[in-house]
């Protein structure tokens, strides 16, 4: 006998709560990892509410207590990569367009970044107008560890973080807590997790400024502020090998640990990530960065390290990826350059023509 599907079995729940539009990612067993269907459902809700005068603001959160969203469904990406498929290109196209839409949304978009927020989870939250973190927040762009490069507008955000803190986070894939997320420009307000229900209830009738003025606390101090001196010095290079030398020679134990973290990542992904960050600094809009990320992600889908990284970290979980090439010095400039090559005639492209709402960030 087939059990009938109920509303609560849906991967994204949407409903109205007064003047508030609620979006709840509803795959708690998978840490609310994003699928293509979920991206479409979020976009459809934002479209409906953008033109609904009864909706003043939108709140996005995740079901369960483990996190808002741990990123995209990388098992599906792995299956696509090893089969030579192109479904991931369609997924990324719609996901990146959603990221741009969130950044330009004309109504207040409030992201509850409670628990784990990684990769695609950052894309659906950190581009919002109001971003709330808690004592449980763990935020990261860990893509280099699976042979990938920060996307979903992540290189836009990290390239604009203070000093070289974004470079440090991108290359190491390190997770940060609430205080560092606010200091890096990835979040705005600290609210203890036990107050979140009260905050959301209050937002149904009040403005974000008024509500957070009542419920937010000063954020706990993070670690990055104390490490900025060596971070800014060591990462102020456009060469990954030189960055590693500076980290190892700095005399700081935390810097040496960062070097060890970096050396475990995909050599190709590291070099492409650093180039992406430096190029993102020169681009004048989130959309331009997302276009660049789409070219990089498309190239990564056909490169060996993405499938191998996901295999080692998620599929087989042996944590021993065989990177190709295996060393930084074997990654040639032309190997990096191919990730930024202009798309061929007829290749899938992003189209931001429909993302025309007023810039709010």
TrEMBL record:
One of its GO terms (cellular component) is cytosol. Keywords: Hydrolase. Residues 21-340 form the Enoyl-CoA hydratase/isomerase domain. It is an enzyme of class 3 (hydrolase). GO terms for biological process: L-valine catabolic process. It catalyses: 3-hydroxy-2-methylpropanoyl-CoA + H2O = 3-hydroxy-2-methylpropanoate + CoA + H(+). Its EC number is 3.1.2.4. One of its GO terms (molecular function) is 3-hydroxyisobutyryl-CoA hydrolase activity. It comes from the Bacteria. Signal peptide: none annotated. This is 3-hydroxyisobutyryl-CoA hydrolase.
């Amino acid at each position: 006998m087939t059990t009938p599907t109920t509303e609560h079995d849906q991967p994204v729940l949407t409903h109205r709560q007064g003047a508030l539009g609620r979006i709840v990612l509803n795959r708690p067993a998978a840490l609310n990892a994003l699928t293509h269907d979920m991206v479409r459902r979020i976009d459809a809700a934002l479209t409906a509410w953008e033109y609904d005068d009864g909706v003043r603001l939108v709140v996005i959160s995740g079901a369960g207590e483990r996190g808002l969203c741990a990123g995209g469904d990388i098992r599906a990406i792995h299956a696509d990569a090893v089969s030579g498929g192109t479904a991931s290109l369609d997924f990324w196209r719609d996901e990146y367009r959603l990221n741009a839409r969130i950044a330009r949304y004309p109504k207040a978009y409030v992201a509850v970044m409670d628990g784990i927020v990684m990769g695609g989870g950052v894309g659906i939250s950190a581009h919002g107008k109001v971003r709330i973190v808690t004592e449980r927040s763990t935020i990261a762009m860990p893509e280099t560890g699976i042979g990938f490069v920060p996307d979903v507008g992540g290189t836009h955000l990290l390239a604009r973080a203070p000093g070289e803190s974004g470079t440090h986070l991108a290359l190491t894939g390190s997770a940060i807590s609430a205080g560092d997320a606010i200091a890096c420009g990835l979040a705005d307000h600290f609210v203890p997790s036990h107050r979140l229900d009260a905050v959301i209830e209050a937002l149904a009738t009040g403005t974000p400024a008024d509500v957070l003025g009542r419920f937010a606390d000063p954020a706990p101090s993070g670690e990055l502020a104390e490490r900025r001196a060596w971070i800014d010095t060591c990462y102020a290079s456009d060469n990954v090998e030189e960055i590693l030398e500076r980290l190892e020679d700095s005399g700081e134990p935390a810097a040496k640990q960062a070097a060890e973290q970096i050396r475990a990542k995909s050599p190709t992904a590291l070099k492409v990530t650093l180039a992406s960050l430096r190029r993102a600094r020169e681009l004048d809009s989130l959309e331009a960065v997302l276009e660049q990320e789409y070219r990089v992600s498309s190239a990564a889908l056909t490169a060996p390290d993405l499938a191998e990284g996901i295999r080692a970290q998620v599929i087989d979980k042996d944590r021993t990826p065989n990177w190709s090439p295996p060393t930084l010095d074997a990654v040639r400039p032309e190997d990096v350059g191919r990730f930024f090559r202009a798309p061929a005639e007829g290749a899938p492209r992003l189209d931001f023509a429909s993302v025309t709402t007023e810039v709010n960030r």
